[in-house]
Amino acid sequence: xxxxxxxxxxxxxxxxxxxxxxxxxxxxxxxxxxxxxxxxxxxxxxxxxxxxxxxxxxxxxxxxxxxxxxxxxxxxxxxxxxxxxxxxxxxxxxxxxxxxxxxxxxxxxxxxxxxxxxxxxxxxxxxxxxxxxxxxxxxxxxxxxxxxxxxxxxxxxxxxxxxxxxxxxxxxxxxxxxxxxxxxxxxxxxxxxxxxxxxxxxxxxxxxxxxxxxxxxxxxxxxxxxxxxxxxxxxxxxxxxxxxxxxxxxxxxxxxxxxxxxxxxx
Length: 266
Prior knowledge:
- The protein contains seven helices and four strands; from the N terminus they run ααααααββββα.
- By secondary structure, the chain is α+β, with helices and mostly antiparallel strands.
- It has a domain of 170 residues: Roll (Nuclear Transport Factor 2, Chain: A).
- A four-stranded antiparallel beta sheet has the order 1-2-3-4, covered by helices on one side.
- β1 and β2 form a beta hairpin.
- The chain is flat, with a radius of gyration of 44 Å.
């Protein structure tokens, strides 16, 4: 019996020690796991800080370069402005060809102003009335595409092209008839006359091929009442002397166009 008890006692002691060792191993494993996680978190924090620091450093470097570049350019521009006589390049002399092109450009601008404001253009009014009558006719009222091919519409477009296209580039002509509305001052039915005078065309200094325009238009209605309207505008031309863009205006409320509209209603 004693031997058996001693054996059990020894066995119990061994089991107790094994339990103790297992508990210790679990604790050590938990501590080791905690240390590993702590170290990983620390490394991740360092990595995030390093990335943020690199990004901030790159941004600061970019800002420094940008400011330095701005100061350098500003200093050079200031020096150039303060010492314009130091420029080694001189403005090229105007050649005969350039002078001829400029004269041609001014002639084109003048011709457009005169054709638009010496009027009204009776031929245009006749063709416009015919085209409008055709548009509301039974033949074309519900077929706009067919109207665009009609003899009346084609005659109107042909006359506009014949009158103005030679003075413009292709794009300039399309803009003039669609945006500025060519013959805009000729489309009224009451009795009146227009005449363009005092036309001045001057190339803008420092802006070659761009011109300032000014002119006066005399308006006389059917009662022989006369008013004068001062127009101003700009025009840009191509190297070939053709008009790329032309604009002019004399006022929105009391200008010539408004007077024409008012007299149309009387």
